[in-house]
Amino acid sequence: MTLTKATQATKTGDFGKRKSYIKRYWQLYALLSLPIAYFLIFRYGPMYGVQIAFKDFNLFQGINGSEWIGLEAFREVFAMNDFYITLRNTFMLNFLDLLVSFPAPIILAIMLYEIRNAWFKKISQTLLYIPHFISWVIIGGIVYQLFGTQSGMVNTVLQAMGMDAIPFLTDKNSWLITYLFTGVWQSAGWGTILYLAALTGVNRELFEAADVDGASRMKKIWHITLPSIKPTIITLLILNLGKMVSIGFDRPYIIGNTAVREYSDVLSTFVYRIGLEAGQYTLATVVGLFQAVVGLVFILGSNYISKKVTGDGIL
Amino acid sequence: MSARASNRIFDIVNITFVSLFVLFCLLPFVHMIAVSLSSNRAITSGEVTLFPVELNWSAYTQVFSDHSMLTSLGFTVILTVATTLLCMLFTIAAAYPLTKGNLKGRKFFMYLIVITMFFSGGIIPEYLLIRDLHMINTVWALILPGLVSPFNLIILITFFKNIPPSLEESAEIDGSSYMHTLIKIVLPLSLPVMATLALFYAVGRWNGFQDALMYINDPQIYPLQLKLFQMVQNNMVTELTQMEGANRTALTPEALKAATVIFATVPILLVYPWLQKYFVSGVMLGAVKG
Lengths: 315, 290
What we know:
The structure holds 2 protein chains of 2 kinds. Chain A is an all-alpha fold.
């Protein structure tokens, strides 16, 4: 059957068509083969390795040689106290960050939009974007210099004003201030870009009409500027809520330390600590897989919400 | 109060607030520069705020005479350039074919790529993969795993799609091959977006830390960030031992740490202002969904 079909196809010239298709497109497939090989090896390769979450993995037997243990490792992880602490910290740090770092660029973008001196505005923007390009290692170095209890500049200034020194790095509650400070410092300026882009689309005639009505600047911000960036705000808010379980490694690992571990240990640092430092590969993979799956659920959930609220998904 | 006067007051207050925020972003750097130029005595007694006390350049002389630091800087520069070139090559190689709507399998390849934006194997399986490929302690562990960022790829696809098709079609009628069209027509029209992506890749590699921490323990190929991190950790030891009242004489002088931080920041500050207008447009392209 298939043979006759194939011969028929050749007769009717499909073979020739295929040949000319390959002749026409081979360069594109050749180009594509490199990045696709990359994705298969370096992105899908680790996905194959995820199976060790269900295996009693050891380095000598390798991924395929290790024995299946079903959900035993999951049971062990869900019985670990540290797992719940790091899960709580991940949510807590992300939530506090959202509370502080989310409104900052909105306010800053509105203030920048109100500046009429083009030269001052441009210089300010250039300087405000700089922190975004600074690595967490460097920020860590700066933070220890600024917030040290004994000779850090912030405490020196506080003491000069007659206040007590605050242990920004070694007391877990004060450390939260340090953590949040780094977030605002690094992201507030950069975050204004999308809002300012949305604002370039605002019809200037709206402001002129408001001028005729004698509206104050604050009134205009409230009734014209803010509503025009509202869709951007909502989309970014939903996007951020979708990322509540994912947390970068560098920031909590570098800004955190053993004295404040009760708050600074999050899922990403926990995976690193039990996996690569303690060599419990299976348990660490379980935590990583848990984070990836819950993260996916959050993203899909926020996409669903976004469709309901804004009529457009974020994916 | 007249409308004019209230307008004026608004401007003054607004400019003041923006200026304060700009200062908030800059003061940490100013302080680090001041510390790097001050004497250790002045630093540890907390006299240094925004201006150097007992001005001296010895910290910088030390950084520049530290052989391992210069090696690390040189290695990181080469690594960053090589990574950026390879990343751009692979990203372009993926983006161009994926803009051709009549290419068979295009949808499948798109799904293959987009899925990796939302799900990944996690760092342990990735570590085991790098280990199985015998890439631990080689530069390949720092280059290959991040070769194509799906996010950057989608920015580039979006940009390629916006190039008027008539330009490419006329070249195709003239019998130009796809490779030729890509190099002679598409790429020259895409210089701004390529500058943006190259900057993203370069900054990512320059600032990259976790992969170096995981894969590299040969001091010969320590990227700058890993080298810096060891000093930062050193700082933390200072902070913790102070709590316990231990002595601190054996630790790296603060001025030297500050000078190193400045040393690692300056290259970024030198490159960044020239590319600002490109990456701002790049961020906006990224916001438009692919």
